[in-house]
Amino acid sequence: MNGPAPAAPSGADHDAGETRSFDAPIHRFHMFRPIGTPASIVTLFLDGRPIMAYPHETVAACLLRNKIPYFRTTPVSGAPRLPYCMIGQCFDCLVEIEGIGSSQACLIQVKAGMRVFRQDGAASAEWVAPQ
Amino acid sequence: VNAATNPPMGSPPSPDADVIVIGAGPAGMTAAIDLSTAGKKVIVLDMQAAPGGQVFRSLGANLDARPTTDDLMAALGPGYRAGEALIRTFQINPAIDYRPNTTVWDLRADGTVGWLYDGQAGYIRARHVLLATGAMERPVPFPGWTLPGVMTAGAVQTLIKAGRLQPEGRIVLAGTGPLIFLLADQLRRLGVKPVLIARTDRLRHKLAALPHLRLRALPQVLKGLAWLAQLRLAGIPIRTGVTGLKAIGQNRVQRVSVSMDSKTVDIPCDLLIVHDGIVPATDLAHAAGISLKWQQAEAGWCPVTQTDGLAMPAPGPALTQGPCRIHISGDARRIGGADAAIAHGKHAAQAILAALRGNTSGPQTLAAVNASLAPRPFLERAFPPGLAAGLPEDQTIICRCEEVTAGEIRGEIRGGATDINLLRGILRCGMGSCQGRNCAATVARLLAEADPKAKSPPAPFRARPPARPLPLGALAGLTGADPALAEIISLQDKPAAMGDGPDA
User: Fold this and answer.
1) What is the DSSP annotation of B359-408?
2) Phi, psi of B350 (to 5 degrees)
3) Among A43, A98, B182, B493, which one is most buried in terms of CB atoms within 10 A?
4) Does pLDDT of A45 surpass 50?
5) In A, which residues are within 8 Å of B162 by CB distance?
6) What CA–CA distance (Å, rounded) separates B240 from B221?
7) CB proximity A88 to B under 8 Å
């Protein structure tokens, strides 16, 4: 029904195709896969490592498609979180984007070369003003 | 404050537009088109990158990307495609000052709007503000709802529409409402087969709803029955009357437990999709001091407005001078879906045009509003809040941001903290990034639970700007600030938004 994406084959090959670009020893969550084939691909950097992004995506959709197991940990208990509402109401998708901490990943479109960091606990002052 | 760009103290700043519309969904787009066609200067602020709202999210981009999106468009069906003409009409209208990717973080009854775009922020003003910010899913705390892998049905729909993604793995849908069937049908068309659809609604709800079924609602009901038939044909297990939903897992959802037919079943799960109906997004109305009314049948608030959308300020001292210039339309006023939002967007635009002319609006657009809301009495009774029907057990997290449990809140209430703002001060519930959007209704209900004399739950946490996070750099460079407003120093500057009591 859906054409396979050239750079991200669906099904069993998925991990092999993507772990080269993101080699952290983490368990990846199989929750979402692309519908159809994207027209073009850009690269964004998650925690300093390049990952493949599609220009139509929000940062949240991109990270979920890349099977990232959590976006942030909570400031209170350190529990991992993934997006819950995807429409800007739950604030569980907070990440650092281009130096701005606690950015809502579900509201921001990906851009080529965008630097995204997952957030451990609260956004720190360093993240607001790097260096 | 730059003296060159701001008027001297005492004189009110001149308006930037006749009308500022907040939200570019069906109601906001419709009203903006009608207002600008009538020659009014309209600014539209929208949090999304493209017009459409949540219902028509990314429709323009998905149409433009055909044929790569053919499967996606086929799965989303005619209800999604239906927004094309409205979006195109909105986009080609050169008179509309449309500002996407813009977050509104403050709203005042005098027509002042605080905006944030790409790290820059400021205030703009209009003679009237139309709040068309739509709905959010009713927040429903249950054990494990903060685990990664638990998402709302709306979130999954957004990922389909805007992310061109489909869920995979072992999927459980739980909750109630027409959106469950719509999503399940869309998933079926994508070849995705949930392992279980666990519905909280029962046959007796449908029987109780039947007398409220209007002829006009029949097409919608038949569509729902067709979805249901297709799902049964596809062999997807559907259970009704389900209770006791729990998400279980270490660092992610791994199992889901539900009670059905007086048995508890525990099933492996990779993605738990929950939905318990939708409620108006009241955050900005509340921030502006608009009165909110508790709707017992909907386990949530709605703003108090006239039929034409004009919002009613809460009693008490107002933050700003003069009449209330805020109107509310679409799902942000009353849940009704896209068609109802379009009908009300037209009606609200006529009312604003009449107010700008200084006369009263005719009733021509009102009939369509009433017709569009005809299915609601049936739907509300057929799909009452289910996951949110009772209040959670003590161990359940209520405030997702600060991880405050029902037990902690009940403990403080027993200890005498019977004011919602005091509870926030003590426990930090409602003080996190979401500013109480996900916990306020539950905290208010816990207060009502402890006070048998309470007519209805109290108003939400007192709101103060910014209603959404504002980077310090943006605040430092704030433009368009009103010097007169900076003079307000009292802590009693905001009225407590007390509603008119339960559903009138």
Assistant:
1) SPPPSTTHHHHHHHTTTHHHHHHHS--STTSSPPPTTSEEETTTTEEHHH
2) -65, -40
3) B182
4) yes
5) 56-58, 61
6) 18
7) yes
Verify whether the Cβ–Cβ distance A35 to B403 is below 8 Å: no
Find all residues with CB under 8 Å of B421, minimum gap 6, and list them: B461, B462
What's the confidence (pLDDT) of residue B496? 52
The two three-digit tokens of residue B13, written as one number: 């700043």
The predicted model gives A43-51 an average pLDDT of 96
Q: Which amino acid is at A15?
A: D
What is the helix (H) or strand (E) element at residue B85, kind and residue range?
A: helix B84-92
Interface test with A, best of B159, B252, B286 (most A CBs within 10 A): B159
Q: DSSP string of B59-81?
A: HHHHHHTTTTTHHHHHHH-HHHH
> What's the whole-model pTM score?
0.90
What one-letter code names the amino acid at B37?
T
- Cβ neighbours of residue B130 under 8 Å, at least 6 residues apart? B19, B20, B21, B22, B27, B28, B31, B309, B327, B328, B329, B348, B349, B352
Give yes or no for A33 touching B (CB within 8 A).
yes
**Residue B233 neighbours by CB under 8 Å, 6+ apart:** none
Section A70-99 average pLDDT: 95
Closest to B478 in 3D by CA, of B103, B33, B100, B123: B123
Q: Which residue type occupies B342?
A: I
pLDDT by 10-residue block (mean), chain B, 504 residues: 46 86 98 97 97 97 94 95 98 96 95 94 96 96 97 97 96 96 95 96 92 87 90 94 96 95 93 97 96 94 97 84 93 96 97 90 84 91 93 97 97 97 96 94 97 93 92 90 61 49 38
Is residue B498 within 8 Å of B315, Cβ to Cβ? Answer: yes
User: Distances from the Cα of B395 to the Cαs of B144, B371, B406, in angstroms?
Assistant: 10, 44, 6
Q: Identify which of B285, B279, B280 has the alpha carbon closest to the alpha carbon of residue B106.
A: B285
ipTM of predicted assembly, 2 dp: 0.90
C-alpha span between B134 and B331 (Å, rounded): 5
Of A39, A62, A87, the CB nearest to B65: A39
The tokens describing B25, both together, are: 């969904």
On whether the CB atoms of residues A121 and A96 are closer than 8 A, the answer is no
Average pLDDT, chain A: 78
pLDDT for the residue B261 = 84
